[in-house]
């Protein structure tokens, strides 16, 4: 049985459910908005962790789950019923904890996604995987920022945490605000000219999209009156292979990798998204990412954890 957990209005969840329906697959979907109707019972013995998930009249034995796709985005609520809110939060956390130890394919395990919480740490992993990374400075010292800009000319900056931030070009106006760094260490990078490429890795497959935009951060192009045009492309085999290998090393059966192709043909890697909103790229390019994800879930077996999806995936 395939177990899907997330919010019904979240398009990556919607797309994989549609793909599973198209494949006439059997699955159990738990909408995070319906946690108030759910009950989760766990028992532990010498054979492992077992339990049952009940949602109204439906029930699911944990031992019957062969694969999981989860986007555990629990939205904060301000309900009048405090006990009900606590119940939903506790059940959500139980599920997240179980995803880390479940003896099946999990896309993706919460522990594997933690590398994204620290951009500097993730950059080390990217470099170890063989990708070029931008020259980087992480500092709370305005003097170091000015020196870095003098050395590299065009510089961008962004948050060092896993919270999404808008990539911004350092100009004189921003430079005059650097006294604020004392309260917020920030990541500065030499700007890399080239073309943005987003690669989605699904198991052993890669799906790449080239993004044409004059915006510094194409994700927010419309905010500055620009556009972003996407088209599907074929990656060089060596780069595709490196993307798959890096995702495996990070224990991510599904990942969204942000690359930039320089004029000399070399690829620079900025970061790896462990919970990518792939549906945007799929809608813009026609890349069959949801179909590939559903196939990955369908072909997973409980023994796969030992063979392929254990430590290091």
Structural class: alpha+beta
Give the helices and strands as they follow along the chain.
Answer: EHEEEEEHEHHEHEEHEEEEHEEHHH
How many distinct helices? 10
The spatial strand order of the largest sheet comes to 14-13-12-15-16
List keywords for this structure.
single chain, 313 residues, five-stranded antiparallel sheet, 31% helix
Folded structure, characterized:
By secondary structure, the chain is of the alpha+beta class. It is 31% helix and 28% strand. It contains ten helices and 16 strands. The strands form four sheets. The chain has a five-stranded antiparallel β-sheet, with helices on both faces. α1 crosses α9. The model is unreliable at 303-313 (pLDDT under 50).
Per-chain topology:
Elements: E1 2-6, H1 11-22, E2 27-31, E3 38-45, E4 48-55, E5 58-61, E6 67-70, H2 82-101, E7 105-107, H3 110-113, H4 119-128, E8 136-139, H5 142-152, E9 155-158, E10 168-169, H6 172-175, E11 186-190, E12 195-202, E13 205-212, E14 229-233, H7 237-249, E15 254-261, E16 267-273, H8 278-285, H9 289-299, H10 304-307
Parallel strand pairs: 1-2, 1-6, 6-7
Antiparallel strand pairs: 3-4, 4-5, 8-11, 9-10, 9-11, 12-13, 12-15, 13-14, 15-16
Helix pairs in contact: 1-9
Q: What's this entry about, in short?
A:
The protein has 313 residues and is an alpha+beta fold. Helix content is 31%, strand content 28%. It contains ten helices and 16 strands.
